[in-house]
UniProtKB/TrEMBL annotation, chain A:
Domain THIF-type NAD/FAD binding fold, residue spans: 8-501
Superkingdom, taxonomy of origin: Eukaryota
GO molecular function annotations of the record: NEDD8 activating enzyme activity; nucleotide binding
Annotated localization: Nucleus
Coiled coil: none
Name the record gives this protein: NEDD8-activating enzyme E1 regulatory subunit
A family per Pfam: ThiF
Function of the molecule: Regulatory subunit of the dimeric E1 enzyme. E1 activates RUB1/NEDD8 by first adenylating its C-terminal glycine residue with ATP, thereafter linking this residue to the side chain of the catalytic cysteine, yielding a RUB1-ECR1 thioester and free AMP. E1 finally transfers RUB1 to the catalytic cysteine of RCE1.
BP GO annotations: protein neddylation
InterPro entries: APP-BP1, ThiF/MoeB/HesA, ThiF_NAD_FAD-bd, Ubiquitin-activating_enz
Family: Belongs to the ubiquitin-activating E1 family. ULA1 subfamily.
Automatic annotation (TrEMBL), chain B:
Catalytic activity line of the entry: ATP + [NEDD8 protein] + [E1 NEDD8-activating enzyme]-L-cysteine = AMP + diphosphate + [E1 NEDD8-activating enzyme]-S-[NEDD8 protein]-yl-L-cysteine
Classification via SUPFAM superfamilies: Activating enzymes of the ubiquitin-like proteins
GO biological process, one term: protein neddylation
Function: Catalytic subunit of the dimeric E1 enzyme, which activates NEDD8.
The protein's name: NEDD8-activating enzyme E1 catalytic subunit
Alphabetized UniProt keyword annotations: ATP-binding, Ligase, Nucleotide-binding, Ubl conjugation pathway
Length: 523, 447
């Protein structure tokens, strides 16, 4: 393969070499290679995953030509898995593409250990019974699992992983870590060396806002008994004081200082979501704890001790109006503090590892450093077993969705998708799958949906006739555009799970192809 | 129950042949609908890149048989991580041609015409031929141009309602990293691209004095080498971002400058990113957005389901967020409104008319070409057409317009000031003074 770095340039700019390496090491298993499965894998093969294994026991039919791009006319009657696998291979010869001609349901029943060889399983178009069984197999084998289904103008995507911890969550907008509300001694001392009332106008307009705010906050504290601005009036007055220090109207640094003045009043300490992670019982580590939780345990100690209530400093600063010299010096001061914090964290990690009987050097410096840099942004996602969701969905949420206008179509589809599987279990076909008898199918589906709502503890809740009709009209059709959407979402989530970057979705994503008011249901 | 006979449209038939309750107002299910889509509907896909490749596949598998694709670019290695219709051996070939060929090879019965050219190179007639236009673009200027073209066909009736037969629907998609949008534009009913241009804020540029005097970041050093140093050293030679030697030069100059100021972080990859303003792109986001666009195209054309109203955003950075927003039209919009009103005397020549447009404060047009009902009255380019139409310049516009007292005229030119000029198309309502049947009262509501 020529120049993989160039080929992957546009995605390396998103997930970097580490993310790419994780993808290249991964092995993905696809169950059923209709358009939903084929499209999911297409996106992953293009991105350069290590290997893909396509499992499908069916033969290619004429109808498959109308909704799947990874097949062609000359393959009608042949193995669908073989055909799709060959076309996927064409997209990227760096990927190992394999196929197994077997029905996924049979494999789930007869050979559960088959799945343990994979990093992740993408299970498409499975019915409830098989989903529940596969979910248990993958959970026990510690294999990541994602379900995807396209059904008429609806469908769903659901991740099932016991726990997924993210260090590099890379949020779009996140407040920089400047500590203007709690500057450390070295930063304070540096600010002291700078005179805000310098006569030279060029120097005056190139004093970075970080310095302006630290000095102004200190001045304020001196004249207000050591406190910072807290009331709305205080804050306005503080801003006015900054404005009063301007000596020309074009001083961008003072404008930036006024805009950023809220950073001085921001509450100290850690966010509620980080607090929750620190309080999680997994942070009581033992010899089996993951690297992530060992580092969380170290973080907890750090915050309580040398951190003085704060996490390790991130160490980078945003661009701001400044002379080059002051900016670079400021950058070095932030980096030095981040390095000190990292060294303290590293010592704590080593001690903890030793205490739990593990090699104190088993977590790399690079990983600890990355954890420190992202400490404010770490995330933990957990997913219920699909069986638990099916048998006992979170009641208050379900009730809320059933009565909330914004959710009514999405939750309706959720109930009807599940009802369609019960229907199929009873009648050996999906409602409306074949022409004729549409009215009978509608009334049967309705009966099943009412019974399902009853089983879920929602007696009295109803679905609209329109939606039940619509579901029967779909007749389990797998439309290409819907499959491409659902498969696209599934592949996006797979990438997040494998690269351990960004935050995967939580809950069950219900696609609404009527008006695109899709929803995530937390059941 | 009867088992269906094998058919390629097994799945699509469920939607197109069966009646439904949550469908469009003009939905008439049945085999005729399916056949009409095959036979008579023509879809134009603008762009054969990340979105375009997906769109062609999605539309070809959504029952459309007559597709056209237009793109001026050639295939590059960096396209291969998402533009799945291209292979390494295709690098250097026109995207539109390869994309069309690959989809036709795979999907039987589909006919795709490819156009390897700029969108401005096609006459208005070309665009008027399509039932719907689907946009897979990465530039605001190109979106703006196609939007103006589609809106130029729009006519209003006397009650200011859009005439249905003149409405050219558009579906537009865009992506950046894990984020994207899909929207539908029904000129005259939903906001056009120009009505909501504020959704696309202009790119922020670094002030030159920062680059020259107080660089602080790696990007500042790169832009100094690219925008200032290059011209100092290579007098007269234009910088070509696609020339690796030029890029290498900028990179090494940026490194020197960064070292001088003690600024970390200049890499070759960042240099390319800053200079070419590279937007990160991946297969999955393109797949999601294109699929939404193709599905809306099918729904608009067939009525088989209600449609999106009218703007969908997708964000997969932190969890998964989709949101539908109903934007509203700008009634004063120059592009999708009834057109700028121009009142003229019958004696005004075409030359004078063009001068008038160049001085018109609402238009600010230069290099103006004029067409009326598909007829070229004056064309700036190509030279052959310019020569052919030059003699019209001294003829009164009224005569050139066959003495029609009130009609729509299309003008093409460059809009904007200084270095921000871009080609644009404007619809004008030209009214001649003092002709029977047109009174001042009639015009009162129009302006």
């Amino acid at each position: 393969m020529a120049e993989p770095k160039t080929k992957y340039d546009r995605q390396l700019r998103i997930w970097g070499e580490q993310g790419q390496e994780a993808l290249e090491k991964s092995s993905i298993c696809l169950l059923n290679c209709g358009p939903t499965g084929s499209e999911t894998l297409k996106n992953l093969v293009l991105g350069g995953v290590g290997s893909v294994t396509v499992v499908d026991g069916s033969k290619l039919e004429l109808g498959d030509l109308g909704n799947n791009f990874m097949v062609d006319e000359s393959s009608v009657g042949q193995s669908k898995a073989k055909t799709v696998c060959a076309f996927l291979q064409e997209l990227n010869d760096a990927v190992k593409a394999k196929f197994i001609e077997e029905h996924p349901e049979a494999l789930i029943e007869s050979n559960p250990s088959f799945f343990s060889q994979f990093t992740l399983v993408v299970a498409t178009q499975l019915v409830e019974d098989s989903m529940v069984k596969l979910d248990k197999i993958c959970r026990d084998a510690n294999v990541m699992l994602i379900f995807a289904r396209s059904y008429g103008l609806t469908g769903f995507v659901r991740i099932s992983v016991k726990e997924h911890a993210v260090i590099e969550s890379k949020p779009d907008h996140f407040l920089d870590d400047l500590r203007l509300n709690n500057p450390w001694p070295e930063l304070r001392r540096f600010a002291e060396t700078i005179d805000l009332d310098v006569a030279d106008p060029v120097v005056h307009k190139h004093t970075p806002y970080v310095i302006i705010l630290i000095k102004m906050a200190e001045e304020w504290a001196k004249s207000h008994g050591g406190t910072l601005p807290s009331t709305r009036e205080d804050k306005k007055e503080f801003k006015d004081l900054i404005k009063a220090r301007m000596i020309a109207s074009d001083e961008d640094n003072y404008k930036e200082a006024m805009e950023a003045s809220f950073k001085v009043f921001a509450p100290r300490g850690i966010s509620p979501s980080l607090q929750q992670i620190i309080n999680d019982s997994s942070s009581e580590v033992n010899s089996n704890s993951s690297e992530f939780w060992v580092m969380v345990a170290a973080l907890k100690e750090f915050i309580a001790n040398e951190g003085g209530g704060e996490v390790p400093l991130e160490g980078s600063i945003p661009d701001m109006t400044s002379s080059t010299e002051l900016y670079v010096t400021l950058q070095k001061i932030y980096q030095a503090k981040a390095e000190t914090d990292f060294l303290a964290m590293e010592q704590r990690v080593k001690k903890i590892l030793k205490r739990i009987g593990r090699d104190p050097d088993s977590i790399s410096k690079a990983n600890i450093k990355s954890f420190c840099k992202n400490a404010r942004k770490v995330k933990v996602c957990r997913y219920r077993l699909i069986e638990d969701e099916f048998n006992s969905p979170v009641q208050p949420e379900l009730q809320k969705y059933l009565t909330d206008e914004d959710y009514s179509v999405a939750v309706g589809f959720y109930i009807l998708l599940r009802s369609a599987d019960r229907y199929a279990a009873n009648y050996n076909s999906f409602p409306g799958q074949f022409d004729g008898e549409m009215d009978e199918d509608i009334s049967r589906l309705k009966t099943i949906a009412v019974a399902l709502l009853g089983d879920l503890g929602c007696n009295g809740s109803t679905l609209t006739e329109d939606l039940i009709n619509e579901m029967c009209r779909y007749g389990a059709a797998e439309l290409h555009a819907v499959a491409a959407f659902v498969g696209g979402i599934a592949s996006q989530e797979v990438i997040k799970l494998i690269t351990k970057q960004f935050v995967p979705m939580c809950g069950t994503f219900i696609f609404n192809g009527i008006d695109h008011k899709s929803q995530l249901l937390s059941l | 129950m009867t088992a269906a006979t094998p058919s390629r449209s097994r799945d699509l038939d469920k939607l197109l042949l069966r009646p439904g309750h949550l469908v469009g107002p003009n939905f008439e299910p049945g085999p005729e609908l399916r056949e009409d889509i095959k036979e008579y509907v023509k879809v134009l896909v603008v762009g054969a890149g990340g979105l375009g490749c997906e769109l062609l596949k999605d539309l070809a598998l959504s029952g459309f048989r007559n597709l056209d694709v237009i793109d001026m670019d050639r295939i590059e290695v960096t396209n291969l991580n998402r533009q799945f219709l291209f292979r390494l051996e295709d690098v250097g070939k026109p995207k539109a041609e390869v994309a069309a060929k690959r989809v036709m090879e795979r999907v039987g019965g589909v006919n795709i015409m490819s156009h390897f050219c700029r969108i401005e190179d096609k006459p208005l007639d070309f665009y008027s031929d399509f039932s719907i236009i689907v946009l897979g673009l990465d530039s605001i200027e190109a979106r703006s141009y196609i939007n103006a073209v589609a809106c130029s066909f729009l006519e209003y009736d006397t009650d200011d309602n859009p005439r249905e037969e003149t409405v050219k629907p558009m579906v537009d998609g865009g992506t950046e990293g894990f984020k994207g949008h899909a929207r539908i534009i029904m000129p005259g009913t939903t906001p056009c691209f120009e009505c909501t241009i504020w959704l696309f804020p202009p790119q922020v540029k670094f002030p030159l004095c920062t680059l020259a005097e107080t660089p602080r970041t790696a990007a500042h050093c790169i832009e100094y080498a690219h925008l200032i140093k290059w011209d100092e050293v290579h007098s007269g030679k234009t910088f070509d971002p696609d020339n690796p030697e030029h890029m290498q030069w900028v990179y090494s100059e940026a490194v020197k400058r960064a070292e001088l100021f003690g600024i970390p972080g200049v890499t070759y990859s960042l240099t390319q990113g800053v200079v070419k303003n590279i937007i990160p792109a991946i297969a999955s986001t393109n797949a999601i957005i294109s699929a939404a666009c193709a599905l809306e195209t099918l729904k608009i054309i067939s009525g088989c389901s209600r449609t999106l109203t009218n703007y969908l955003t997708y964000n997969g950075v932190e969890g998964l967020h989709t949101k539908v927003t109903e934007f509203v039209r700008d009634r004063e919009c120059l592009v999708c409104g009834p057109g700028v009103l121009i009142e003229l005397d019958t004696s005004i020549t075409l030359r004078k008319f063009i001068d008038l447009l160049e001085g018109h404060p609402g238009l600010l047009l230069s290099r103006v070409s004029v067409t009326h009902r598909g007829k070229n009255l004056y064309m700036q380019a190509p030279p052959v057409l310019e020569e052919m139409t030059r003699s019209n310049l001294d003829v009164p516009l009224f005569d050139l317009m066959d003495k029609i007292p009130k009609d729509i005229v299309h003008v093409n030119g460059m809009a904007g000031k200084g270095d921000k000029k871009q080609s644009c198309l404007r619809k004008l309502r030209v009214v001649f003074n003092g002709i029977d049947g047109v009174t001042d009262v009639d015009m009162a509501g129009g302006a």
